[in-house]
């Protein structure tokens, strides 16, 4: 009914501040739940309220997904809060995914919290973390992005250390806090360098500045007179005044490059990419399993959205710099993630190395700087999140039987009798491992093949300037993209070993002595059956993912017709496959 309302009534009823109405709804629900928890007697009703917490948060997130879906009718492509918040299709798509997968996450950990009798009200802070991830998808300047990162990080620190009886959990929280503080310092320092050089922190203004200026020699007076955008001229007032008051006609990009590099390194720390990955191994291993689940699965998408806004929608003209660091960081991450997990026996550490490797593949697709690379990046991240939900749900659904207490899987040897205790869960785990390894006929194969195709797409244009690019003489000219693709495939084969080793433990170990498991209820069975079925369905019919990600590419309005034609060609190949 909204679309039939006259335009003047529409903007009166739905002001631009309603662009963040889903975020308003989350804050109101958080305050309401917090008041209920304060008024309830902790000693009498604490466990009862805790058991209802996860289901309540799941329902809230499903309602938020509904509100985000209606943003297409209420306020798409709107700017608000002094142009600091943008609600374009990229934000709409990624916010919906974050809330949808977070709702599934809370459904999965509900029984875990009940069985462990965790009266941990700290899990309310997951709502704040999700709120920060949503604002990160909406951010349209560097300061808003920084505040969104900090809002989500505070929840992560407490989730890592809330298990106060465990020294490992407290240690993980401290390490996470120190690493996050260093990452935030890098981000602030890089943002200050960019603001000091350009006089603006808004993504659109910086993109217009780079698209309309030649920094080798910049005639300031001509730039002021010929510029037709008043907003653009106002946004770089500090930059122009600084220029006119100096005697320099040539620019030194060192501070601007340093600022961009510091921001990239800050986000690489958040993604646990090499060489900034060491903190993740200890934090993921020492944190409670439900918290590690959230760190490894839900948080990655929003950070990549910020990377896209900074590198593609802000500093696209400096692609020769950020692509250099992205390519080498991605290759090193695949190398460390593939070889580091070969001798691991602990499940959390093994999955931490797997996460490092997958983030490397995602970063390589990101560094392709073409339409296909961005599409494959989103497809890869969606499949990664879905596969992560499958793996961690199986680990949380299986409880080992002990004489005096229960515990969950921590090492590979704990999976020896899983096939005899519950053959369905063992088959689901094996299927998920094949998908993560990229073995057909599962959807993980399409994701990795797309990454290799996005790199091979650059081979034909290697000796020629790309459309929309000013230069292509980057620092890695001696490394062909064919070699990069072949090296990535080789590392992928190596990483397949430790995925297959889990299957070997499940099906081919001859030990007759092992640990038994509790049976799972109907709710758990339905949940992981739907997740496993989705892995097969998306391989048989990947058109849903390609359609949604194609709309994201077109909404960016960044690439020209030549690049879009190549994008449609490779997309048709993947879809027909």
From TrEMBL:
One of its GO terms (biological process) is ATP synthesis coupled electron transport. Keywords: Membrane, Mitochondrion, Transmembrane, Transmembrane helix. The keyword Mitochondrion applies. InterPro entries: NADH-Q_OxRdtase_suN/2 (IPR010096), ND/Mrp_TM (IPR001750). It is a multi-pass membrane protein. It is found in: Membrane. Its main location: membrane. Residues 139-457 form the NADH:quinone oxidoreductase/Mrp antiporter transmembrane domain. The chain crosses the membrane at residues 24-45, 52-69, 89-108, 120-136, 142-162, 174-198, 258-281, 293-318, 324-342, 374-397, 425-456, 476-500, 525-546, 552-570. GO terms for cellular component: membrane. One of its GO terms (molecular function) is NADH dehydrogenase (ubiquinone) activity. PANTHER family: NADH DEHYDROGENASE (PTHR22773). This is NADH dehydrogenase subunit 2. It comes from Amicula sp. isolate GU52X-4 cfCalB7. The lineage of its organism: Eukaryota, Sar, Stramenopiles, Ochrophyta, Bacillariophyta.
């Amino acid at each position: 009914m909204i679309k039939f309302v006259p335009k003047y009534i529409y903007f009166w009823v739905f002001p631009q501040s309603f662009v963040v109405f889903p975020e308003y709804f989350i804050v109101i629900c958080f305050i309401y739940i917090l008041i209920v928890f304060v008024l309830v007697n902790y000693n009498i009703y604490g466990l009862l309220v805790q058991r209802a917490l996860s289901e309540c948060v799941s329902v809230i997130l499903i309602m938020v997904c509904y509100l985000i879906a209606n943003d297409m009718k209420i306020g798409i492509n709107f700017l608000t809060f002094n142009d600091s918040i943008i609600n374009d299709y990229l934000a709409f798509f990624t916010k919906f995914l974050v809330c949808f997968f977070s709702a599934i996450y809370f459904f999965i950990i509900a029984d875990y919290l009940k069985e462990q009798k965790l009266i941990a009200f700290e899990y309310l802070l997951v709502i704040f973390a999700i709120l920060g991830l949503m604002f990160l998808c909406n951010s349209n300047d560097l300061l808003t992005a920084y505040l969104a990162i900090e809002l989500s990080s505070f929840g992560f620190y407490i989730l890592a250390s809330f298990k106060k009886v465990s020294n490992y959990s407290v240690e993980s929280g401290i390490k996470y806090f120190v690493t996050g503080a260093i990452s935030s310092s890098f981000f602030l320092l890089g943002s200050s360098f960019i603001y000091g050089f350009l006089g603006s922190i808004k993504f659109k203004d910086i993109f217009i500045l780079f698209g309309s200026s030649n920094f080798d020699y910049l005639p300031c007076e001509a730039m002021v007179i010929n510029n037709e955008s008043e907003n653009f001229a106002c946004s770089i007032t500090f930059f122009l005044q600084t220029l006119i008051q100096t005697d320099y006609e040539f620019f030194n990009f060192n501070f601007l490059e340093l600022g961009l590099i510091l921001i990239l390194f800050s986000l690489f720390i958040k993604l646990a990419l090499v060489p900034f990955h060491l903190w993740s191994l200890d934090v993921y291993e020492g944190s409670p399993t439900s918290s590690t689940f959230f760190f490894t699965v839900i948080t990655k998408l929003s950070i990549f959205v910020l990377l896209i806004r900074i590198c593609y929608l802000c500093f696209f003209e400096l692609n020769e710099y950020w692509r250099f660091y992205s390519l080498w960081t991605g290759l090193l991450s695949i190398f460390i993630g593939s070889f580091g997990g070969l001798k691991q026996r602990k499940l959390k550490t093994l999955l931490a190395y797997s996460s490092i490797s997958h983030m490397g593949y995602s970063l390589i697709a990101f560094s392709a700087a073409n339409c296909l690379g961005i599409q494959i990046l989103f497809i890869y991240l969606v499949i990664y999140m879905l596969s992560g939900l499958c793996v961690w749900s199986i680990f949380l659904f299986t409880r080992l039987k002990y004489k005096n207490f229960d515990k969950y899987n921590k090492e590979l040897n704990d999976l020896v009798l899983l096939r005899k205790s519950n053959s369905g869960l063992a088959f689901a785990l094996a299927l998920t491992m094949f998908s993560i390894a990229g073995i057909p006929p599962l959807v993980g194969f399409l994701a990795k093949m797309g990454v290799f195709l996005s790199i091979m797409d650059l081979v034909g244009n290697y000796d020629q300037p790309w459309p929309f690019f000013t230069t292509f003489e980057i620092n890695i000219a001696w490394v062909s993209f064919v070699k990069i693709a072949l090296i990535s495939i080789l590392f992928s084969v190596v990483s397949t070993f430790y995925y297959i080793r889990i299957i070997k433990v499940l099906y081919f170990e001859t030990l007759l002595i092992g640990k038994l498991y509790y049976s799972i209820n109907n709710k758990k069975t339905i949940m992981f059956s739907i997740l496993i079925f989705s892995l097969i369905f998306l391989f048989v019919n990947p058109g849903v993912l390609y359609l949604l990600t194609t709309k994201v590419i077109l909404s960016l309005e960044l690439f020209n017709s030549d690049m879009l034609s190549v994008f449609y060609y490779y997309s048709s190949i993947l879809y027909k496959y």
